[in-house]
Amino acid sequence: MDEAPIDIVIAGGGTAGWMVAAALSHLLETGYRIRLIESAEIGTIGVGEATIPQIRTYNATLGINEDSFVRATQASFKLGIEFVGWAAPGHRYMHAFGDVGRDSGVAFQHYWLRANALGLAQPLGAYALNEVAARAGRMHRGAPLTASTVPVMPYAFHFDALLYAAFLRRFSEARGTERIEGRIVDVTRDGASGDIASVTLASGQVIAGDLFIDCSGFRGLLIEEALGTGYDDWSRWLPCDRALAVPSERVADFTPYTRATAHAAGWQWRIPLQHRTGNGRVYCSAFTRDDDAADGLLANLDSRALADPRPLRFTTGKRKKAWNHNVIAVGLAGGFMEPLESTSIHLIQSAIARIVALLPGKVQSGADRAEFNRQTDFEFERIRDFLILHYWANGRDEPFWRACRAMALPDTLAAKIDLFKANGRIFREHEELFTEVAWAQVLIGQGVQAQGWHPIANQVEVTDLKDYLETITALY
To answer: Do the beta carbons of residue 322 and residue 329 sit within 8 Å?
Structure first.
């Protein structure tokens, strides 16, 4: 029996690299050696500061104390994402975490659609506990609420991604991860298999491995430059290709939600942290100049900028194979989904879960690779569709937004929209990330009209329907 340890080499640090290292060093106590290569010369993107509730599962799996995490990363709590100006200038709605209303035989949106047609309904957000709490600047954390009729209040975090990476580095090194300082300058492949055999650092040090995790960012040092895996370009659906990021001073209006505000050629984010506010402007270079985007970003800050805007260029999409040969791409090396719904860190987390579920030994299986890639493709494509919906279902009149409304949609998204338009129906396919409730909030929030609703909703007397909705708002 071969008892030599299986060598896992992580190429790149940052949030992606240290999330991988932390998880593997915690879960793989014996039989594996984990080494992470990063260079102080190479900066990290560090703009992924907003998360979704699944980050709490990752931290809990590692046994990370939530209070310690909040202190170390200057985190704040997040109950959802507010969208400003997407349906129309000045219009606001929220994609709040958790339930909306109560299902009773059929999904709540069917009762809401009927009540709204009768003039009896408040805006959908009035029936979402997280949105009501977020608007009031309140939340519940800790033991479940005693009233069984009140739903749970899921939450996520805004945090400083660079501080999170440093936090996880300390966690990983305490559990045996070896950090190697250096810049990779050469890659050697096995002549027979085509697998990567080793990488060479600028110092001349050669590091061999069995499994390589590429966390090298947009560059894709191993997955693309060495293996030529290829990239699925989705810019025809998600045309924004540039961003500017800038921190500003903390403001008194410390909102427990992320804000995404539409502008003439894209949108701007606002993420409140304990020590500062994260801001950025995502835009399409075909519809605005870089200087104008920078001016617009700085003109729409809530507080004084603490630095000059930092530019980023990207192409939304994914690698054709997330696992190619003996390389698995994680984070920006595997693909980029713009931060509109705060999925970047989640995609790192879900990739880690797949690595653990399909963890190879010394000999890797083609079937395992194929399943890893199938799951990755499905997740990326369904998140892509959800993001496209925000752009397509807009009510603005600028050239960029008119072009977004005119785009030809992926068949999977077109089918989902058609189903909702017909009778308000939404179905979650397999384990796609966004739930029926999430889709309903964006579809209704951005003005997509359903022509009908489930017949079961018609079986409720009008007075009972009115009382049903009023009972929900009274509980909140």
So the answer is: yes
For strands 211-214 and 6-11, give the pairing: parallel
The dihedral sign for the CA sequence 58, 64, 67, 73: negative
In this prediction, residue 252 carries a pLDDT of 81
Give the C-alpha separation, 406 to 387, whole Å: 16
User: What integer pLDDT is reported at residue 44 of this predicted model?
Assistant: 61
pLDDT one-digit tens code per residue, 403-452: 999 999 999 999 999 999 999 999 999 889 999 999 999 999 999 999 99
Q: Under a CB-based contact definition with an 8 Å cutoff, are residues 83 and 445 in contact?
A: yes
Q: Which two tokens stand for residue 29?
A: 């106590």
Find the largest Cα–Cα distance for the chain. 78
Angle at 239 between CA 238 and CA 242, to 5 degrees: 110
Separation between Cα atoms, residue 445 and residue 448, nearest integer Å: 8
Q: What pairing do the DSSP bridges indicate for beta strands 310-313 and 242-248?
A: antiparallel
* DSSP secondary structure string for all residues of 267-299: EEEEEE-SS-EEEEEEE-TTTS-HHHHHHHHHH
Tens digits of per-residue pLDDT, 371-388?
999 999 999 999 999 999
What per-residue confidence (pLDDT) applies to 102?
87
- Identified catalytic residue from 78, 318, 321, 416: 78
To the nearest 10°, the Cα dihedral for 167, 172, 174, 175?
150
Q: What angle do CA 255, 259, 260 make, to 5 degrees?
A: 175
Q: Tell me whether residue 421 is one of the annotated catalytic residues.
A: no
Token couple for 2: 């071969």
Model confidence at 1, pLDDT cuts 50, 70, 90, reads very low
In the block, which residue shows the tokens 């709540």?
Answer: 108
